[in-house]
Specification:
mainly alpha, 2 domains, globular
Length: 526
């Protein structure tokens, strides 16, 4: 399995998804603005996504992939019969895992639909201050929540495909979500009670579409997953045992967002939306880099460690970190230097005015301070999961979340929604540091000579880019403060200059080079 090829496949499709995601969010900002309906939809959309990360992408994937990969590796490469038997055992385990997940999800979704009004009191208590806002959030949440059931099964299907080295179909699935939401907003916003209702139904049907898409691809690649009668087997018991401790450990980012959302409902009308739109911008580098590296790294590490290739696993994790930092540090720096320009061009139109732009840009600045940490968590956590240790990350995550909650409560009093974003970033850095320290103490991770040499150069290249970006920003103000077309062009020029400057500095300083990229593409253990 080629790590860089896997990362670029996942990252490429994630980038495409984020592009459509920005189109989606621009339409949401235009139709909904940052008021009551937007806040209600954000809560309705974030709720199933939180539990998706907890039960599926976080806990389920972290526990499922190493066991599934171990079953695949149990066959001999030279013995076709043994290899086929191993694949069949892996498929049967996946069937049982899907049966277990489906039963849990049906019960959980049904229960949550019943208690949704009371859940909203906890999750969005501040909405009571605006007449009708709580009721609207409850209605939209009930429509969108079944998305959790479909998308969680999609996560299992993705784990199967990623484990056999087929990353494209799973990486493309989020594109379908954004296309469905765009279609729902453009086609049905004027025919429903509010545009938020159209979006909520779009979320529901997006889950159905994504599930059908990956079911077809699993079958096409020889792993058709069937909904069998649930049975309590040894491997299912092991799966459940490993899921429970990682529920929070693998999902710190979403848990922090939920806590921030709850607290933001008490800050001001629109605070939830400001944090949502700012988070959407940071999701571009986080998704393209962080999610891509983490998705590709986990099955590769699991298989390398199962084969006893410890040195190769250490090399893979170093290269994953190098690639992540090479792309994340300049992205974070750009969000720190030009946050208001980014938000103005992306969202300021229709119901989204200048006041919302300024508030959202402040939140983006705060989130950007923690962006490298969020990405590094994605790189470091597979070092535990691939070794089938799902307990340690949760202990670290709990410590980070306690700090997060305390900081949010303290900072929101003086800084409002910006304090909530800043606290989340600080807790992410704490989580990153603790993960790295524990891995190093166990002898499972150390910066190799290449990464130690490259990191200062990456930082210098980023600093050079910041200088160019600031000079360019000052000289392009006449475009960035003009009409929409001029603003878009001005931001495109600004981003292009920043990218070109960073690339030039990176090559001159030897933070990266064409020959390295070629060698990484050819090397199997990268």
């Amino acid at each position: 399995m080629n790590l860089l090829k896997a990362i670029t496949t996942v990252g490429g499709y994630t980038l495409l998804s984020r592009v459509f995601g920005f189109v989606r969010d621009m339409l949401i900002a235009n139709f909904l603005g940052a008021g009551m309906v937007a806040d209600a939809f954000v809560v309705a959309f974030r709720l199933p996504n939180l539990f998706r990360r907890l039960f599926a992408e976080g806990a389920f994937a972290a526990a499922f992939v190493p066991i599934f990969a171990r079953e695949l590796e149990s066959g001999s490469d030279e013995d076709a019969a043994a290899r086929d038997a191993a694949r069949e055992k892996a498929r049967q385990f996946a069937d049982q895992a899907m049966a277990l997940l489906a039963v849990i999800l049906i019960v959980f979704v049904g229960l949550f639909e019943l208690i949704m009004p009371w859940a909203m009191v906890i999750l969005a208590g501040g909405f009571d201050a605006v007449p009708g806002k709580m009721e609207l959030a409850t209605d939209l949440s009930r429509i969108a929540f079944p998305y959790l059931m479909f998308i969680s099964l999609v996560s299992l299907q993705s784990g199967v495909l990623n484990s056999i080295g087929k990353f494209a179909a799973a990486a493309a699935a989020p594109v379908l979500l954004n296309l469905t939401l765009i279609a729902a907003l453009l086609g049905f916003a004027d025919h429903m009670e509010t545009p938020g209702h159209a979006l909520a139904w779009g979320v529901f049907w997006a889950g159905v579409v994504q599930f059908a898409w990956l079911a077809w691809h699993c079958r096409a690649h020889g792993f058709p997953l069937r909904l069998v009668r649930p049975r309590w087997t040894e491997k299912v018991a092991l799966l459940v045992k490993r899921i429970l401790p990682v529920v929070f450990g693998a999902s710190l980012y979403q848990v922090n967002l939920l806590i921030g959302t709850i607290l933001a409902t008490y800050v001001s009308d629109g605070a939830v939306s400001y944090l949502y739109y700012a988070d959407r911008v940071t999701q571009l580098p986080l998704g393209v880099v962080g999610v891509a590296v983490g998705t590709a790294l986990l099955p590769l590490l699991a298989r390398q460690l199962k084969a006893g290739e410890d040195a190769a696993a250490l090399n893979s994790q170093n290269r994953g970190m190098e690639f992540a930092l090479l792309l994340t540090l300049p992205a974070a720096a750009a969000c720190l230097i030009i946050p208001e320009d980014i938000i103005r061009v992306l969202f300021e139109r229709g119901a989204f005015g200048a006041e919302a732009t300024a508030a959202t840009a402040s939140a983006l600045f705060a989130y950007a301070t923690g962006l490298p940490a969020y990405v590094l968590i994605r790189v470091l956590a597979p070092g535990f999961y691939a070794r089938e240790d799902t307990t340690t990350p949760v202990r670290i995550a709990i410590a980070a979340m306690v700090v997060n909650i305390a900081l949010m409560i303290v900072l929101m009093k003086s800084m409002g929604h910006v304090g909530i974003a800043l606290a989340a970033s600080a807790s992410a850095w704490l989580n990153t540091i603790l993960l790295a320290v524990v891995l190093a103490q166990r002898g499972h991770f150390a910066l190799d000579a290449r990464l130690r040499g490259r990191l200062p150069r990456i930082l210098l290249a980023t600093a050079g880019m910041v200088g160019v970006l600031e000079i360019a920003r000052q000289n392009l103000q006449f475009m960035l403060n003009a009409g929409t077309a001029e603003q878009v062009l001005g931001l495109a020029v600004l981003v292009g200059l920043g990218f070109a400057a960073y690339l030039a500095f990176a090559v001159v300083l030897r933070a990266a080079g064409l020959q390295d990229a070629k060698s990484m593409l050819k090397a199997r253990d990268l």
